[in-house]
């Protein structure tokens, strides 16, 4: 019997439905990060949570809807970055350290990397990465208007995004040492040097 059983009181049903929906999101995030969009099936996600496949369709509509919800519920790379290069480097170091996302087995940015074969999903992935580059420009005070977003500035911001994604891949998916075990404090110095050199 699913946790959404109609035999339970109405208040209990709502709580169970919320918990089930959250569990499905977490299972989907893990699947999408580990095997990618194309290899993730709704049946596998439902089995991971121990619920009926129909619940995913009820809550999210489709695999694309589930991916969109899982992506929206994941931490965004370079989110809430204070202004300035030093703050940018500190935030990037913190987000890429080994203990950054204890609730995830793999770094959540890995959801954005594997080819999906679905144009709408590819657009969502691109939009998420473009958003990270824009937040970098905003943190440096160079993203407030289209005129400020020069091709060179945007390229440099995207290179920092690529650095973040690369660290996530090597740490989470490959386990390259010492990068896989480095702390935020140990990352801070080298990343500060990269940010200063790239974004000066």
TrEMBL record:
It comes from the Bacteria. Keywords: DNA-binding. Signal peptide: none annotated. GO terms for molecular function: DNA-binding transcription factor activity; transcription cis-regulatory region binding. Residues 18-78 form the HTH tetR-type domain. Residues 1-20 are annotated as: Disordered. Residues 41-60 bind DNA. InterPro entries: Homeodomain-like_sf, HTH-type_TetR-like_transc_reg, HTH_TetR, Tet_transcr_reg_TetR-rel_C_sf, TetR_C_16. This is AcrR family transcriptional regulator.
